[in-house]
Write a structure and sequence with these properties.
- The structure is a single chain.
- The protein has 2 domains: 1-28 and 75-115 and 165-241, Rossmann fold (3-Layer(aba) Sandwich); 29-72 and 117-158, SIR2/SIRT2 'Small Domain' (2-Layer Sandwich).
- Helices cover 35% and strands 18% of the residues.
- The protein has 10 helices and 9 strands.
- Strands 3-2-1-7-8-9 form a 6-stranded parallel sheet, sandwiched between helices.
- Helix 6 links the parallel strand 2 and strand 3 (111-113).
- The protein is elongated and about 55 Å long.
């Protein structure tokens, strides 16, 4: 069985796993693609926890356009098709490596953000919570967002290199990927661990794998179907669902 229609129709519990490639249709740069962020600077440096603590202005300078323009970005056809699948009761959950909130903009409800989210942030000194818009105002003025209560630095709730994945999101993702009999991995190199371990969870429990990506991944040999173009995938979905 290697037909998208057959794989989806024969599944009783389908989930999606999405990476940065899904958001390129919305105009955002991915990390490791041909024109990705990695061509400009190592993403590991921008999102390095140690660098953030020693000089938060470094992150906020380089993340100004990368992260703090999300409010101007619209969901893509990929986000919209996944939301449609969820609304139809076919897609049970979306595990995403992305922090851009575009799945929610498209209308998806069951989104599990395993690398955190830019939707909110917290003061590193007193723990006070701030919204994305609160942070955007300061960043657009070229300032480091600081707490209005104690003047501490505000860090967005994005998982930086050097931090553990959010515990509750990781637990939910592990549960969903273990229950799934079909996981569709879209726009991810499947190189980043432990996030890519959710693919292993599904395979270990006898589930099937569809990969939608324009570059090879370490899981290609385990896939029941590989589609190298996200638009092609969306077109096929319209035909079969």
């Amino acid at each position: 069985m290697n037909n998208l229609t057959e794989l989806i129709n024969s599944s009783s519990y389908t989930i999606a796993f999405t990476g940065a490639g899904v958001s390129t249709f919305s105009g955002l740069k991915d990390f490791r693609g041909e024109n990705g962020l990695g061509k400009i600077m190592e993403p590991e440096k921008i999102f390095d926890l140690g660098i953030f603590h020693s000089d938060p202005s470094f992150f906020y300078t380089y993340a100004r356009e990368l992260v703090f323009d999300f409010d101007k970005t619209n969901s893509s056809v990929v986000h919209q098709e996944l939301a449609r699948l969820e609304k139809a009761g076919i897609l049970k959950a979306i595990i995403t490596q992305n922090i851009d909130m575009l799945h929610q903009k498209a209308g998806s409800q069951g989104v599990i953000e395993v690398h955190g989210t830019a939707e909110k942030g917290h003061c590193l000194s007193c723990g006070k919570e701030y919204s994305y818009q609160d942070m955007v105002v300061s960043v657009k003025e070229g300032k480091v967002p600081c707490c209005t209560t104690c003047s501490g630095v505000i860090k967005p709730d994005i998982t930086f290199y050097g931090e553990s994945l959010p515990e509750s999101a990781f637990k939910r993702a592990a549960e969903e990927s273990s229950k799934a009999d079909l996981i569709i991995a879209l726009g991810s190199s499947l190189l980043v661990q432990p996030a890519a371990s959710f693919i292993d969870n599904t395979l270990r429990h006898g589930g099937k794998l569809i990969i939608v990506n324009n570059q090879s991944t370490p899981y290609d040999s385990y896939a029941d179907l590989i589609i190298d173009d996200l638009e092609d995938f969306c077109g096929q979905l319209k035909d079969c669902v």
